[in-house]
Amino acid sequence: MSGGESANDTGGVKEMEATHDTRTTEKGHDLDVAAGRGNAELARLLPHPAADANKYTRGHLSLVAGSAAYPGAACLAAAAGERAGAGYTEVFCAGKSMITVRGWRPSLVVRDWRAWKPAKAPAPRPGHPTACVIGCGFDAAETSLTSLLMETVRGWEAPLLIDGGALALLANATGLRLARERAAAGRATLLTPHGGEAARLARGAREALEEAKAAAARGTRGPLEGLADTLSAAGRATLAEASPAPATLARALAEAYGAVVALKGPVTFIASPDGTAEIMNRGTSALAKAGTGDVLAGMIGALLAQGLDPRDAAALGCALHAEAGRTAAAALTDICVAAEDLITYLPDAIRAIES
Ligand SMILES: NC(=O)C1=CN([C@@H]2O[C@H](COP(=O)(O)OP(=O)(O)OC[C@H]3O[C@@H](n4cnc5c(N)ncnc54)[C@H](O)[C@@H]3O)[C@@H](O)[C@H]2O)[C@@H](O)CC1
Ligand SMILES: Nc1ncnc2c1ncn2[C@@H]1O[C@H](COP(=O)(O)OP(=O)(O)O)[C@@H](O)[C@H]1O
């Protein structure tokens, strides 16, 4: 791993006040980072079901997750998605993972991912929200998964969250181009990298910029034409840095990929393509265990599937995840908490935010 993969230390970002729109300067870039939202604001986003709700109107979450190497990631994300309110949670996973995912939770609808046809999914319609999470438990070494991902980025109309091993597969000129085409078509995308995955996404954006430059030098028109001109100078400077500070990196990735980016770590930064960013620093080091990111992806995916916009889904999902971690740590100690416990303690997190 390169030095760039330690992207999520918090060096360079000033301690945030508990007020909104805190202004700070990070590594010479002028940066506005809004402090984390308060409980009252978050509570208003909680998707309580309407009295006449049914499982379809509550939101349909499709999870494309769980390679043969990592079935557990699909289990964690799907169970978190159910707990976070999705009315219908469907898992498309490797054939070899199906029995594990089915056995873990009978309420999940489990299919082989060869049956996943993102471009043929019914178009989203009012009152029937839907979203897709792809990548939890993807084995990035399995290059055959690239077409599954790219087909989804190209063909899936509703909000799309990309996590885990799928981020490595997205991190190249083709992935960036397809993500930008989604944005241009008004389709929402949310990326949830940890520091290592964010560094890979930055490399992918650099590759795209190089490709665009080479095409321009040859005088060839191509799909990445004008990319450099559409990115801000600050964004390009951040992508060129070996070890950018996380808030600026989150913002540069959001701009480059045309997606909301939640760059996870001890402090999580949520950045949007329009240049806005907010901080989420309610977490606990009890969360530093394998699988907690898969749980977060399932929670945010369920909120997207219930109709929240990507920024709100990321802010509420990260806050609920952090609160669940804190409550779990209070009960179990910060040593003993495991990813599954966050799902168990999600109801306490909801109550904490509502109170
Ligand atoms: N129970 C399961 O089945 C689990 C499956 N998982 C899946 O395993 C796949 C590989 O993900 P991994 O993240 O393990 O491996 P990756 O190889 O994608 O990333 C880990 C590498 O990134 C570097 N890194 C830098 N900053 C980091 C940071 N802030 N946090 C974490 N790593 C950082 C690490 O040094 C490490 O070399 C993903 O698809 C993921 O969803 C994991 O989520 C763990 C649990
Ligand atoms: N020291 C820490 N303090 C607070 N939160 C943390 C800390 N370490 C990790 N986390 C949180 O735990 C989660 C880890 O996600 P990720 O690295 O993707 O895990 P995995 O890939 O194993 O599922 C993220 O939400 C991150 O913000």
TrEMBL record:
InterPro entries in alphabetical order: Carbohydrate_kinase_pred_CS (IPR017953), CARKD (IPR000631), Ribokinase-like (IPR029056)
Cofactor (UniProt): Mg(2+)
Keywords: ATP-binding, Lyase, NAD, NADP, Nucleotide-binding
Molecular function as annotated in GO: ADP-dependent NAD(P)H-hydrate dehydratase activity; ATP binding; NAD(P)HX epimerase activity
Catalytic activity annotation: (6S)-NADPHX + ADP = AMP + phosphate + NADPH + H(+); (6S)-NADHX + ADP = AMP + phosphate + NADH + H(+)
Residues binding (6S)-NADPHX: A73, G137, H194, D294
Annotated spans, Disordered: 1-29
GO biological process assignments: metabolite repair; nicotinamide nucleotide metabolic process
Composition bias type Basic and acidic residues, residue spans: 12-29
Domain YjeF C-terminal, chain residue ranges per copy: 38-353
Chain sites annotated for binding AMP: K264, G265, P266, V267, T268, G293
Its EC number(s): 4.2.1.136
PROSITE patterns tied to this protein: YJEF_C_2 (PS01050), YJEF_C_3 (PS51383)
Entries under SUPFAM superfamilies matching the protein: Ribokinase-like
Entry function: Catalyzes the dehydration of the S-form of NAD(P)HX at the expense of ADP, which is converted to AMP. Together with NAD(P)HX epimerase, which catalyzes the epimerization of the S- and R-forms, the enzyme allows the repair of both epimers of NAD(P)HX, a damaged form of NAD(P)H that is a result of enzymatic or heat-dependent hydration.
Family: Belongs to the NnrD/CARKD family.
Complex formation: Homotetramer.
Protein's UniProt name: ADP-dependent (S)-NAD(P)H-hydrate dehydratase
Organism: Adlercreutzia hattorii
Gene name as annotated: nnrD
